């Protein structure tokens, strides 16, 4: 299969590329790195990416910015960081991918454990991740041609504890390579409308 991985240069993305690359032809995409670049918050940039790459069998998104701050000081502009990037960026990819996926192809998006396990400073992250999961469940019943869509919800990564550790006290981190297995299940499996929980979930 030919698979596009958006966010291929991040901690999860690198592990997903390594996992899928054992079986499939992987096209790596990043904001600045990878074989191709995309600003997925801009649907014109997403359309340009797919026009260059052409037909594919699967699309994986492991990207998206979020703002973390106390609710008392959160501004609408800070909420829009996650809404424009992690939510609408992934939705943009799903919308455009419909036209470029071969019959039976798949889309895999990324949410996160805080969709159901909120943390301090994470109101935007919980809102955005839950919205991504809601979009996937709804999109799954409408996609044509046997196309599938799933979402992977990782817990905090061992590789990211340096940055995010203080937010995730008491959470058991997992290796990015373990999270990557959930993406493989989505790409190589047969299910649709699923939330694959990668480690740490009750």
Walk me through the structure:
There is one protein chain. This protein is an alpha/beta fold. It has helices at 11-20, 43-53, 76-100, 123-140, 161-164, 176-188, and strands at residues 2-6, 25-30, 36-37, 56-61, 101-110, 148-154, 195-198. Strand 4, helix 3 (76-100) and strand 5 (101-110) form a beta-alpha-beta unit. Helix 2 runs parallel beside helix 3 and helix 3 (76-100) packs parallel to helix 4 (123-140). The mean pLDDT is 97. It comes from Duganella margarita.
Compile the SSE list and pairings.
Elements: E1 2-6, H1 11-20, E2 25-30, E3 36-37, H2 43-53, E4 56-61, H3 76-100, E5 101-110, H4 123-140, E6 148-154, H5 161-164, H6 176-188, E7 195-198
Parallel strand pairs: 1-2, 1-4, 2-3, 4-5, 5-6, 6-7
Helix pairs in contact: 1-6, 2-3, 3-4
Keywords: Oxidoreductase
Pfam families: adh_short_C2
Organism: Duganella margarita
Helix content: 40-55%
Could you describe the largest sheet, including whether it forms a barrel?
7 strands, parallel
The radius of gyration is 16 Å
* Strand elements, count: 7
Mean pLDDT: 97
Sheet with the most strands: spatial strand order: 3-2-1-4-5-6-7
Question: How far apart, in Å, are the first and last alpha carbons?
Answer: 33 Å
Which class do the helix and strand fractions yield?
Answer: alpha/beta
Query: Could you give the order of the helices and strands?
Result: EHEEHEHEHEHHE
Pfam families: adh_short_C2 (PF13561)
Keywords: Oxidoreductase
Organism: Duganella margarita
Protein name: Short chain dehydrogenase
